[in-house]
Amino acid sequence: MNIILLGPPGAGKGTQAARLVSQRGMRQLSTGDMLRAAVAAQTPIGIEAKAIMDRGELVSDEIVSALIDAELLAMGEGTGAIFDGYPRTSEQVGQLDAILARHDRQLDRVIELEVDEDELVRRIVGRFSCANCGAGYHDEFQQPTTAGVCDKCGSSEFKRRKDDNEETVRTRMAEYRAKTAPILPSYEARGLVTRVDGMAPIEEVSAAIERALVTV
Ligand code: ADP
Ligand code: ADP
Ligand code: ZN
């Protein structure tokens, strides 16, 4: 099974992708995570992408599609893919169709997470993650069970994203409205979209996604 998690920054895509990975053995393909790894490793792609990401604008379609293609190539054929934060433009939609065809995969469902804009800012400004294993947390909504200790790996080091500040978030949302929201009608025309209320608690969002996937 291959699915897309679509939604504005902070909607809960990464949180839900991580749950699908542990519950269904699928693989998360997050272009944001891949780009941050490239920035940290100072690869040519990372050097090019860094300033664009810091401003909250979109990195080029060719770069992100090449990253996705390479990840699928490295993945076993039997493992399902969760596209998290990709595609984000109509060009990327076309590129993903071509990539999936080349890898003999089909797109089974597009889950759209719907969340109010004010809530998104609150989620992003409070977001942090484990510096060791990447597990995601939130200051108010998803704290570690023991304060200061990662539930998953026991590490006590956490980090925050440089682009998770209010100004950059506004640019990222404007990019979402202008370039990403317009891709939904093409997936709707293909009968692939399920809308999920992303304002609900994390467990309820997971349950709604599970219901959408049993029919696939
Ligand atoms: P969020 O989880 O907040 O939606 P991401 O981690 O997906 O953010 O993306 C962080 C940044 O990486 C984006 O603001 C953008 O600069 C870049 N990026 C990630 N995915 C894409 C993509 N598919 N196309 C273009 N740029 C991307
Ligand atoms: P995205 O990948 O779409 O940018 P994340 O999954 O990183 O979003 O979620 C953004 C922040 O909101 C994280 O700190 C996460 O812990 C928190 N969060 C995710 N889903 C929910 C939810 N349903 N209710 C409350 N907080 C949530
Ligand atoms: Zn951890």
Task: Explain this structure.
The protein is of the alpha/beta class and 216 residues long. The strands form 2 sheets. The chain has a 5-stranded parallel beta sheet with strand order 2-3-1-4-8, sandwiched between helices. The chain has 9 helices and 8 strands. The chain is globular. It has helices spanning 13-24, 31-40, 44-55, 61-74, 90-102, 117-125, 166-180, 184-189, 202-214, and strands at residues 2-6, 27-30, 81-84, 109-114, 127-130, 136-138, 158-159, 193-197. The mean pLDDT is 96. The longest helix has 15 residues, at 166-180. The N and C termini lie close together (8 Å). Helix content is 48%, strand content 15%. Helix 4 runs parallel beside helix 5 and helix 6 packs across helix 7. The relative contact order is 0.19. The structure holds adenosine-5'-diphosphate (2 copies) and zinc ion (ZN). One adenosine-5'-diphosphate binds next to helix 1, helix 2 and helix 3.
